[in-house]
């Protein structure tokens, strides 16, 4: 993740912590817009590992900070509890790491982002929240361009196949990336795979 954020000029890492106490102290001393945290944040010398308590504490003490939780947890009840506790976004460790950057960009403007596998699990369990509606929708033409691009077609090849101007295809790809909150091609590929657009 350090490399991911370092490569993105729109993100600055202002602090790092390896336990809940250090994290809370850093948040008090160092202003930030988005917190990215593992759900498992053990305290040294104890068995305490209550991720929900940490999320609630951050939400209570630092209401303006968006919280992105990265986890391997698959239990639907826990996933639902994480969101209910105040997490802005929820990313599965099983999905491409680039999606953390996407989640951060969504969270930074107050939009929720939930990994596709989690959305499916929550929906199957009857969770009523419509996560897909909280993301910007691509137009049919933007979806078409993104799908072809993710399959390995160049902008020129897509323009030829769809019988459109190269500049139009380039603009539609750029507009789609802006809507999805991704800044580069690897991020776009990761989003397409995770969201089943390809």
TrEMBL record:
Modified positions (4-aspartylphosphate) in chain numbering: 38
InterPro entries the record matches: CheY-like_superfamily, NreC/VraR/RcsB-like_REC, Sig_transdc_resp-reg_C-effctor, Sig_transdc_resp-reg_receiver, Tscrpt_reg_LuxR_C, WalR-like, WH-like_DNA-bd_sf
Superkingdom of this protein's organism: Bacteria
SUPFAM superfamilies to which the protein is assigned, alphabetical: C-terminal effector domain of the bipartite response regulators, CheY-like
PANTHER family: TRANSCRIPTIONAL REGULATORY PROTEIN RCSB (PTHR43214:SF17), TWO-COMPONENT RESPONSE REGULATOR (PTHR43214)
Name the UniProt record assigns to this protein: LuxR family transcriptional regulator
Sequence ranges assigned to domain HTH luxR-type in this UniProt record: 131-196
Keyword field: DNA-binding, Phosphoprotein
Ranges where the Response regulatory domain occurs: 1-108
Record GO biological process: phosphorelay signal transduction system; regulation of DNA-templated transcription
Gene Ontology terms for molecular function: DNA binding
């Amino acid at each position: 993740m350090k490399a991911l954020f370092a490569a993105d000029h729109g993100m600055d890492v202002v602090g790092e912590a390896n336990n809940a106490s250090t994290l809370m102290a850093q948040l008090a001393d160092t202003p930030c817009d988005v917190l990215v945290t593992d759900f498992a944040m053990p305290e040294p010398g104890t068995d305490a590992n209550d991720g929900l308590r940490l999320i609630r504490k951050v939400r209570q003490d630092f209401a303006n900070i968006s919280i992105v939780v990265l986890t391997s947890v698959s239990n639907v009840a826990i996933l639902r509890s994480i969101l209910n506790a105040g997490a802005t976004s929820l990313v599965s460790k099983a999905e491409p790491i680039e999606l953390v950057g996407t989640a951060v960009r969504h969270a930074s403007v107050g939009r929720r982002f939930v990994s596709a596998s989690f959305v499916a699990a929550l929906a199957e369990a009857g969770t009523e929240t419509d996560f897909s509606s909280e993301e910007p929708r691509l137009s049919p033409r933007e979806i078409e361009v993104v799908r072809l691009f993710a399959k390995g077609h160049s902008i020129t090849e897509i323009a030829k196949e769809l019988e459109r101007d190269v500049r139009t295809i380039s603009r539609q790809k750029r507009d789609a990336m802006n809507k999805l909150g991704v800044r580069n091609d690897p991020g776009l590929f990761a989003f397409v795979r995770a969201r089943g657009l390809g």
